[in-house]
Design goal:
single chain, alpha/beta, Arc Repressor Mutant, subunit A, D-Maltodextrin-Binding Protein, domain 2, 3 domains, 8-stranded mixed β-sheet, two-stranded antiparallel sheet, 12 strands, 41% helix, 22% strand, rod-shaped
């Protein structure tokens, strides 16, 4: 039993004529008769009483007719629902990201998205670090993930731009923050690092190793916000995304020399791209804080 066969059967019942039904359906009368016969064969019953002039439903046909109409109406609603989702008129989109981006990068794009697609609900899941986001996305959570470069494969990937990683050193740290500092000048400083699951520690260790030293950890934390508070209060220095630094903490933030940037990407699943691609494009256009590769300073490091 196919939807097309049910449509043909219902049309014949409504017009009580194979000839008129064929004209409405823009098919030949033999093709219409053949499809109705196949439906009868599948159901092992006669659905229509055929005469030279009319075709009327049998008792079995009358029993099928309202159900067939319900099925066709349900299929039409299903098709419309999918079209509405593709057009951004209904549905939902689940976005995974990291907390610094959820507050520092996404809001302008989310605002524009809501103006353009008020009928689509955004579900934003923010994670403490990129590795947690990556693990959730691998487990099937979310339609699109936005964060630093991770090891996700089999996804559609778009670069949103580059964010700067800045040094946080409070007034009590003893670090002179009136100018940009090189990592080599921080050789003797104590550091706030992140737990092993957080990729920022790997970035800090790699950058410091390139400058010839191992960072001396005095505190480990899993949260960028905690590291920002500790470093701003002079406990130790740290390196965090510039978009995570807000309010009074900005006085403790300095660029390194050369500045350090990391790329922010969007990862979407093949089956979710109809809405994901639109969302990613809106976020990219709405976010002036991220630099393109062409905008990066000549002397810089990429984390």
């Amino acid at each position: 039993m196919h939807l097309r066969q049910l449509e043909y059967f219902v049309t014949v019942c409504e017009l009580e004529s194979f000839t008129k039904a064929a004209e409405r359906l823009f098919i030949t009368q033999p093709s219409l008769s053949q499809q109705v016969k196949r439906l009868e064969s599948d159901l092992k019953v006669t659905l229509l009483d055929r005469t030279a002039r009319t075709a009327r439903p049998t008792p079995a046909g009358r029993a099928l007719l309202p159900i067939a109409r319900e099925i066709l109406a349900g299929a039409a609603r299903a098709e419309q629902a999918v079209r509405d989702v593709r057009a951004g008129q209904r549905g939902d989109l689940e976005v995974l990201t990291v907390r610094s981006l959820a507050t520092g990068i996404l809001p302008p794009g989310v605002g524009l998205w809501h103006e353009k697609f008020p009928g689509v609900v955004l579900k934003i899941n923010d994670y403490p670090h990129a590795e947690a986001m990556e693990a959730a996305f691998r487990d099937g959570v979310g339609d699109v993930a936005i964060g630093p470069r991770v090891g996700l494969t089999g996804t559609h990937t778009v670069s949103l731009g580059f964010e700067e990683l800045v040094l946080i050193a409070g007034p009590l740290s003893g670090v002179h923050t009136d100018k940009a500092l090189s990592l080599a000048e921080l050789r003797d400083q104590q550091w706030v690092l992140f737990d092993s699951a957080n990729g920022l520690t790997r970035i800090i260790r790699t950058l410091c190793a390139a400058s010839g030293f191992e960072p001396l950890a005095t505190v480990f934390t899993g949260q960028v916000e905690t590291a920002l508070e500790l470093a701003s209060n002079g406990v130790a220095v740290t390196l965090i995304p510039d978009n995570a630094v807000r309010g009074e903490h900005r006085r403790c933030a300095r660029s390194l020399a050369p500045p350090v940037f990391r790329e922010i990407l969007a990862y979407s699943r093949p089956g979710s791209r109809s809405l994901s691609d639109v969302f990613v494009d809106i976020v990219r256009r709405a976010q002036p804080a991220l630099l393109t590769r062409a905008d990066l300073p000549r002397a810089h490091s990429l984390a």
